[in-house]
Specification:
Elements lengths: L4 H8 L7 H8 L23 H10 L18 H19 L2 H5 L4 H8 L3
């Protein structure tokens, strides 16, 4: 059975359906770095989450193992050293995949976060 083009168009997509991009835009919360709900560090202070932000995230997501950045001196081979090494490897991949502008900007969020983690 052949259907007409008009019927085929109607079957493809209902008019009141939202697109994937519209859904994504609505669901993403805005990151705040200052004031009430400021759970992220500003770029100048090293990017990443604050201690308060990590606590808030863990309260909202029970069973989470999220931790703050490893910023101090650590013994070689310790658990903190392994976390740092792992983060540095992952963030290097993010840095490589970012735009040339971000890669070369010493004040970009990824660069500042890597500096804070001592990568």
């Amino acid at each position: 059975m052949l259907q007409t083009r008009k019927v085929q168009k109607q079957l493809r997509k209902p008019r009141n359906m939202t697109t994937r991009a519209q859904t994504r835009r609505k669901s993403k919360p805005i990151r705040k770095t200052t004031g009430r709900g400021g759970n992220y560090r500003s770029t100048k202070s090293g990017a990443g989450m604050t201690e308060k932000g990590v606590k808030a995230y863990r309260a909202a997501n029970p069973g989470s193992k999220l931790k703050t950045a490893v910023t101090g001196k650590v013994k070689k081979g310790s658990q903190a050293d392994k976390r740092r090494k792992s983060y540095c490897a992952r963030s290097l991949g993010q840095l490589k995949r970012s735009s040339a502008e971000t890669r070369n900007d010493p004040n970009s969020r990824i660069r500042q976060a890597r500096r804070r983690w001592k990568c």
